[in-house]
Predict the structure.
Amino acid sequence: MKLFSYWRSSASWRVRIALSWKGIPHGTVPVHLVRDGGQHHSESYHEMNPQELVPALADDDRVFSQSLAIIEYLEETHPDPPLLPPDFHGRAIVRSMALGVACDIHPLQNSRVLGYLRGPLAQADGPVAEWVRHWIGLGFRSLEELARRYGDGTHYLYGDDVSMADLCLAPQMYNARRYHLDLKPYPALVAIDAHLMTLPAFATTRPEAQPDAE
Ligand SMILES: N[C@@H](CCC(=O)N[C@@H](CS)C(=O)NCC(=O)O)C(=O)O
């Protein structure tokens, strides 16, 4: 397997954690999102992934995009250790937490979205950062409540083991800190993130530990 990844990409980090958690051997190909006008817009990358976003995963002569689809693929092909609970109710809740981050928070702070705010919409860095904090905060409010409802509020978002939801939380917390979001209103998320970062699958895959980190 080959993962196309950018060190600071939170969607790539989700997949890096999944590969590490499951102990799946793979190579990593760095795709620089800024250099050369964005290597994800190159002809060769477009050919592989017409969505022109990272991550992408190549396996068995096929290329998959979208981090959660990739993680579901890894879950099906390498079920142990699992990233989804054994019961269908639990799986639906974990997926809804993961999607809450991946669909409702993260896309609003993606670099192409912020680039559009800064460029065509002529917004300054201050309002753009405020935009990011607003949307992360809104998403975190509900995630904090769900974390208390479905987990112990200190170790994992759901139940008593790592799940796909946690793979989305840690990178999102990293982004929240990058944009100086006040995390005091989210003590459960802070505690869970601190615990997750003690686990090798999370710590060794963090942005700064990547070979392409700047
Ligand atoms: N929904 C996609 C999001 C992928 C995504 O937005 N990736 C970002 C990096 S985290 C990217 O490639 N951005 C490039 C750009 O905005 O031009 C997923 O989960 O894989």
Remarks:
- The CA atoms of residues 51 and 91 lie 27 Å apart.
- The radius of gyration is 17 Å.
- The mean pLDDT is 97.
- DSSP finds nine helices and four strands in the chain.
